[in-house]
Amino acid sequence: MDLPIRYLDTHSHGDVMSRMTNDIENISTTVSQSLPSLFSGVLTIAGTAGIMVWYCWQLAFLSCATVILTVVATKILSSKVRKFSRRRQMLLGSLNGTVEEMVSGYRTVVAYNHQDITTEEFCRTSDALTRAGIRTDIFSGVMGPIMNCIGNIGFVIIAAFGGYFAVNGFISVGVISAFIVYAKQFSRPINELAQVYGQLQTAIAGAERVFRVLDEESEDKAGEELENRTGADVTFRNVSFSYEPEHPVLQQFSLSVPSGKKVALVGATGSGKTTVVNLLMRFYDIDSGEILINHQNIKGISRESLRKNVAIVLQDTVLFSDTIRSNLKYANENATERQLETAAEMSRCAEMIERMPQGYETILSGSGKNISQGQRQLLAIARAFVADPKILILDEATSNVDTRTEKAIQDAMHLVMKNRTSIIIAHRLSTIRDADLIVVMDKGKIVESGSHDSLLAQRGRYYELYMTQYAGFAI
Question: CA dihedral in degrees (61, 67, 68, 74; nearest 10)?
C-alpha cells in the first residue's frame, strides 16, 4: 500500500502477489519448523562437547575433524540449494503473473484462438519451475545421507585412535565406548543443523524477493495541507517529464485552468494527455517545472491532502466486489444516506439502483461484471460526486458506452462539473464541445488552444480531428 504507482506500473501483478503469498508462506513454514531444531541442536552440541572434552580432550578434538567436513559439505550443498531456490521462486512468480494475465484477459485469449499458444507458454514456464524444484530437492535431500556418512567417519576415527590410546594406557575401554555414544549424540544435531541450514537457504531465497519489495522507496506522504479555499486554480508551469530517461513525454508544458472552468485535453494517442493527469494526482513526480493549485506548489502538499480534493473517473472503471453503497462511499466513508441518494440522482443512476434486487445493498460480483459498462461508468461518476472534490478529472469516461448512455453520462457529468475545476481527456469530441478551453496536444506540447468554434475556424490540428471524426473523411 505504500509503494509508488511507478512500481506497480512496471512489475507483473501476479509476481507481486506471489511474493505476498508463496514467498512469505515459504519463509513462515521454514522458520516455524527450523527454529526449534536450531535451538535444541545448539544446546545438545554444547553439552555433549563439554562432556567429551572432560573425558578426553584429545579424542574430542579428533572428533571435531568431522565437523570441518560437515561445514564444507554444507556450504557447497547449501549454495546450490539457494541458487535453485531463488530460480524456483522467480519462476513461480512468473507463472503466477502468466496465470493472472490469462485469467483477466481470457476473452481476448479465446477471441484470437490463442488457447494452444497460451498453454504452451504456461507449460514452458511450469516445466522450468519443475526442473528448478527437482534440483532444489535433490541438493536438499542428499544433505542428510552425506552428513550421516561423515558421522560414520567420525566413529571410525574414535575407534582407531581410541584403541591406540587404550593400548598405551591413556584411557580405558569404557571411555571409548562412552565416546562412541557421545559422538553419535554429537553428530546427530550437527546433521540436523546442516539440513536446517539447507532449508533456511530456501527461505532466504524467498526473503530476498520479499525484502526487495520492502526495500523499495515508499511513496512520500509528507507535506502540508492544501489550503482550504473556495475553488481551485490549477497551473502547469514549464513542466517536463519522462517515464524513461532520454524519452521525454512532456516538454516545457504550460497550462492554466481557472477555478470553476472546464478544460479539455485532446490529441493523438501518446501525446501526453493522461500523463498530465498522472502528474496532477502525483502518481508520478515531475522532472522540472512546477504544478500549482491556488499558487501552492503541489510538491509541498501531502499526497493524501491533494487526493482528498481531487476526484477522478477513469476510462477503465474500477469497482470493488462489494455493495453498491460501499462502492459509492469509497470516495467519502463519512457520506450520509442523503448524500448518496443525491449523488445517484445527479449521476442518473438512481433508477438503475432501485431496479437492483437489493437496491444499495446489491453485491457487485466480479468487480461489477454483473452490470453493464455504462452502468459501471454511471456509478463511477456518482462516486466522484460523493467525494465532492474541488478538482474533477474525467479520463475518457464515455469511451466504452453507446450513444444513448453517453448522453446520460454527459448530462450527469455536466451536473457534477458545475462550478468545479474540471480537466477532461477525450477522443470523442462531442463530449467537450461546451468546454471553456480546448487544448490540443502533440508529442508532449500544446499545439493549439481555444474554444470549439475558434479552433474549427483556425483549420489546424483540431479541425483535422473534427473532420476525421464527424465529416466522415480524413484530412
Answer: -170
